[in-house]
Amino acid sequence: MRHTTPRPRCAPRPHRALRPGALLLALALLGSLVACGSSEEEGAPVLKWYARDEAGGVFGAAISDCNEAAEGRYTIELVPLPANADEQREQLVRRLAAEDGDIDLMNMDVPWTAEFANAGWIEEWPEDRAAAVTEGRIETTVETATYDDALYGAPLNTNAQLLWYRDDLVDEVPATWDQMVDQAEALAEEGEPHIIWTQGQRYEGLVVWFVSLLASAGGSVLDESGEEVSLETEPTREALEVMRRYSRSVAAPSALATAQEDQGRQGWETGEAAFMTNYGFVWPSANQLAPDIAADMGWAQYPGVVEGEPSRVVIGGFNIGIGAYGAHQDLAFDAASCLVGEDNQIRNATDAGLLPVSEALYSDPALTEAEAAVEGEPIERDGEPVLAFPYAETIKAALDTAVLRPQTPYYNDVSLAIISILHPTADIDPDDDVERLRDAISRALDGEGLL
Amino acid sequence: MALRGSSLSARARSERRLGWMLCAPAVTVMLVVTAYPVAYALWLSLQRYDLRFPDQREFVGLDNYAAVLGNELWWQDLLNTMVITVASVSIELVLGFALAFVMHRAIFGRALVRSSLLVPYGIITVVAAFAWRFAFDPTTGFVNGLLNTEQSWFTESWSSYVVIILAEVWKTTPFMSLLLLAGFTLVPDDAVRAARVDGASAWERLRYVIIPLMKPAIMVALLFRTLDAFRIFDSVFVMTRGAQNTENVSILGYKTLIGRLNLGLGSAVSVLIFACVLIIAFLFVKGFGTNLAQQRGES
User: Fold this and answer.
1) For chain B, is the Cβ count within 10 Å smaller at the N or the C terminus?
2) Which of A94, A266, A449 sits opposite B67 (nearest CB)?
């Protein structure tokens, strides 16, 4: 992004009559830099938006539209963050803890809301402004941006996992993990592709998996207050049992302990797998890179844990937060409201695969009829254009009943505790690990002790 | 000092003042750059201080140290660190010695041999770590193809250690061999020739003449590498992020300080790592010091 306003040039001032002593020179130079840095900027204020620069340049396009709509009141500028969510958080929290006024807007992964809001790093949305960015939005997406009954972010995009399966191998879509593993074992005996891909690496994806299973079994990590550990014994044991059984079965890929979403996609595209739990990005990718596999690709709700009980998946996505130390918060609220507008949501969805947060869009032809494209090139299979979101209805249903990750300012610590106890998943001991999980998460909630 | 106070001439005094003034910038820089951060970390480690909860900041004395030292995770990570350190440094010593010997004896292409050997050491550690990770990845890597195996290297503890240690050895053996090469130049040719005339075999010449004379160089090389290996971070972080029980003390410090923003607890971890480094250095210097004295006595 280029600056549209001219900035004052920082040129060192000429120094006359330098006396001996390098220290003096250094001090003088420092002084001139400070003087230059503090000079006023002219023209429209520049709002810095810290966000990962999504593929397809969708954020750049949204910025130009919003800048145009602002008619010179402000100019948004994208400051790219790293691709990995952990690294994004690290950079943001370091800056925010130091009260960096440079952050006007920021993309926050949904589990960060409580931490950022509690520390006072982000601004609460005033009621009148909140209405504009919550109306018509899927309820669970608004919940992810809410802390202590106040809104702290504008939902920008959302996400949830689906079950992807090979409809040439699978006759009946499994409703639970146990059924899925049974089917995979049967396929293995017949010598058919039988792998189930999911995320077993020691990172956030493992928490998503665990929390989804736990919620599907009827349990939760924290109690209602969000301050105490819950982890009801029976549901937790069932969730752990499922993780262990699968991890030790022939259905688990040998690289499960290092598998993230993309390893799953790659494995799926080789044709060795019968099932995969993953996000929608696998759809255009398979259509482009492995059209033969994509031709037999079906999707369904994430498998549950208890027969007859529907599954609940963890909700993902990003909300836009307003930095508490920025100089132009009023304008930043305006800018955020524009960036999460429905036109931008549609573009984010069709060009970068970021699912919209507005309910109505899931039945809007702009989304349901959109054709899949990679880097602007439409994807075709057998001469027919491939749709981008044929699974829109299924994912909408998953989002409506989705579960949130624990909403606590200590979320990062809780996540670390879960990861360190449950990895590698093949070594889970359901009886002992319920207690160990409780201990580790209590320690995390105290903010004391190593994790 | 024989001359003091008033007995100093005006000229001597002003020279002394000039001396101090000339030193002052260096001393200031040293204080600002090293002493201040270390002292600040010590001060932080005595507090309950989490950047996410600035209001809860309070002085807690040695509580943080008790929390760290009383946690099995610290001891586990310390053990992991030591496994990596001891294994990689001992392999490097043997390999580095052999390479130094070759470089010392190389008749032609000396400069080329020496500079090509240094290539791994010149590569940025993070970049090298990524290269190793990709090489050993079952889908993108070539190692499985080369060895005709289907191992996923980072899914088990032992194989993760193998790769991390190999990467460390590959990366820093050149440094070791360079230090040892300097040691070889300490060995006078006459001494080796004299031993040969006395009928010592090649092994005896190495065992009783060359190695004792090289001892100071070996000690320095070992000290430097041990301290480096103890603080290893990049390779482990890139390859396993501490999974498969390869988490070491540096990663623990990083997790606590940067990930959790727990400055008190994280500083306690860092100070303890610093203390470990001091202990290692002290032990080495002690051994090394007496050896130097022996050297001087003998020669």
Assistant:
1) N
2) A449
Which residues from chain A sit within 8 angstroms of residue B25, using beta carbons?
22-23
Amino acid letter, residue B146:
L
Distance of CA A400 to the CA centre of its chain: 17
Residues of B in contact with A86 (CB under 8 A): 259
- Tell me the shortest Cα–Cα distance from A258 to chain B, in angstroms: 6
Residues A214 and A263 in one domain: yes
Peptide bond connecting A424 to the previous residue in cis, omega within 30 degrees of 0: yes
Q: Are residues A335 and A439 in the same domain?
A: no
User: Do A287 and A179 share a domain, yes or no?
Assistant: yes
Q: Are residues A309 and A324 in the same domain?
A: no
| A119:B74 CB<8 A | no
- Closest partner residue to A255 among B51, B68, B155, by Cβ? B155
Q: What is the pLDDT along chain A (451 residues), one digit of tens a residue?
A: 444 444 444 444 444 444 445 554 455 455 444 444 433 446 889 999 999 998 878 999 999 999 999 999 999 999 999 988 888 999 999 999 999 999 999 999 999 999 999 999 999 999 999 999 999 999 999 999 999 999 999 999 999 999 999 999 999 999 999 999 999 999 999 999 999 999 998 889 999 999 999 999 999 999 988 899 999 999 999 999 999 999 999 999 988 988 899 999 999 999 999 999 999 999 999 999 999 999 999 999 999 999 999 999 999 999 999 999 999 999 999 999 999 999 999 999 998 899 999 999 999 999 999 999 877 788 888 888 999 999 999 999 999 999 999 999 999 999 999 998 998 999 999 999 999 999 999 988 987 778 7
State whether A59 and A193 are in the same domain. no
User: Does residue A363 lie in a domain region?
Assistant: no
A214 burial (CB, 10 Å; 0-12 / 13-18 / 19+) is buried
* Contact flag B152-A254 (C-beta cutoff 8 Å): yes
H-state helical runs in B123-210: 125-136, 143-147, 157-184, 189-197, 202-204
Residue A29: which CATH number? 3.40.190.10
Tell me if chain B has a CB within 8 Å of the CB of A385. Answer: no
Report if residue A392 sits inside a domain.
no
